[in-house]
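#structure-requests
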Amino acid sequence: MTGPSSQSSHLLINHAPILAISTIAMILLPYLPIADSRMCVAAEESNYICTDDAVAALKASRKGNGSDEMFMQRGVPQRVDGNEVEREAVRHVLRQMEEYFQNEVLSKPDYESVRGRCKNMNELCAFWASVGECETNRGFMLTNCAASCRLCLLLHTNLN
């Protein structure tokens, strides 16, 4: 009788290619671009928290508040208040800020030296940016609101 149950067979697997691929992957892993998951969530009606910690963002959006660690990635939480037009303008600045961080600050090597310093130091940074202060009061805004103004690359210059 012939068949799978009547024959004793041995399967030889050459592990060398698998081991080589695993070794290469482990060496290259730190250098591979990883999709960034930074996001802003509305923690309260007039506050956004921007973070790369999805769990913390989810907790903040459910509780209506969050811890200091959650918004330190972009600085202090931003106030989103005023009339509907003003609130939408601030939200627009926050969306632009997050796109800027994802597409520029966190992905391009030019920003490496300023990533940890590019923050909003005042709760009104996004509002001020929405009314044009990044252009009219550039020195102050660079020092205090570089994230909202999307001026991170200038933090190493003498403009601040």
